Amino acid sequence: MLSKNRIPWQEKPEGSKDVMWRYSENPIIGRYETATSNSIFNSAVVPYEDGFAGVFRCDNKSVQMNIHAGFSEDGIHWNIEDDPIVMKEGNTSMIDSDYKYDPRVTFIEDRYWVTWCNGYHGPTIGIAYTFDFKEFFQCENAFLPFNRNGVLFPEKINGKYCMLSRPSDNGHTAFGNIHLSYSPDMKYWGEHRSVLKVTAFEDSAWQCLKVGAGGVPIKTHEGWLMFYHGVIKTCSGFRYSMGAALLDLEQPDKVLYRSQPYLLAPAVDYEQNGDVPNVIFPCASLHDEEGKVTVYYGAADSVVGIAFGRIPEIIEWLKNNSI
Ligand code: BMA
Questions:
Q1: CA-240 nearest atom, ligand 1
Q2: Which of 131, 193, 239, 266 lies in disulfide reach of 271, CB 3.0 to 4.6 Å?
Q3: Which comes out higher in pLDDT, residue 3 or 259?
Q4: 276 in ligand 1 pocket by Cβ < 6 Å?
Q5: Closest by Cα among 168, 161, 206, 201 to 185
């Protein structure tokens, strides 16, 4: 919960019947905002000191994927480091990495934890921690390859760290369900459980090919609110949209509600056109004590956009639109 940091916000456009709506000034981060970037997209932000900090996916002009730290006073205008994060040794000296992408950031107890898709003989889930977004300490990879979309819960559940992930292949995976795993120490992961699976095409086609966790789940009285991406394969390729689910607080592999319609799908220029057309890929959100939520998402694998909603309305909508 935030008190001093005011999250970015804009009221719903008059007459809109949508549960979530886009910021009128999107995209908030353009593709060329660091000295060497080809694109800046699937990125994660958190409240930090009097403002915000984040970890950003910046692909450079050789189209190598890496993660960069950044800071902002208002959550909209960002200063992103020109150079990628250089990791120090955390709970291991094995900090090899062929590439890094799609970061998430979670504050747990005393530090910020970063998870990302780490290239180690194929994609798997990398973990690091930081106290200040200047020094980062890399830990053991959570899982064997191949895995993507590792997202930590913001607190221990039943005394253990808990992480969502999506086992995958080494390519543009044509399948994918969300699982979760527990760890007593952020090093050894087990007790793997299935959480959310793809839907049948005739039930909800936008999420029938694969689903993957978005930002850090938000704790509410009714459950963990998780934004996720769902994918359909169309005649012209994959299309990534955003939905939401509510997971049981004590036992988060139990899905209470899960959206049948999407909350947001590619529909405007910066989501439909870019290096990979038709992608909305949520990686983070900010929320306040009034229940406002601002979701950060990568658009068309090129830029970052934000969208707004109110948590009680989203939960109500989920209850009425669940499969
Ligand atoms: C996924 C990941 C994401 C990307 C998406 C669409 O497999 O690589 O980083 O946004 O594909 O290209």
A1: 6
A2: 266
A3: 259
A4: yes
A5: 161
Q: Is the CB of 42 under 6 A from ligand 1?
A: yes
Task: Give yes or no for residue 1 having a pLDDT over 70.
Answer: no
Domain boundaries in the chain? 29-320
Type of residue at 171: G
Question: 303 with 29: CB under 8 angstroms?
Answer: yes
Residue type, 274: G
Phi first, then psi: what are they for 12, rounded to 5°?
Answer: -60, 135
Pocket lining: 116 vs ligand 1, CB cutoff 6 Å: no
Q: Which CATH number fits domain 29-320: 2.60.40.1180, 3.40.366.10, 2.115.10.20, 3.40.50.1820?
A: 2.115.10.20
φ and ψ at residue 315, rounded to 5 degrees: -65, -40
pLDDT band at 4 (very low <50, low <70, confident <90, very high): low
Task: Please report the pLDDT score of residue 3 as a whole number.
Answer: 46
Average pLDDT score over residue span 163-174 = 96
SS3 content of the chain, % helix, strand, coil (to 5): 5, 50, 45
Q: Is the confidence at residue 43, as pLDDT, over 80?
A: yes
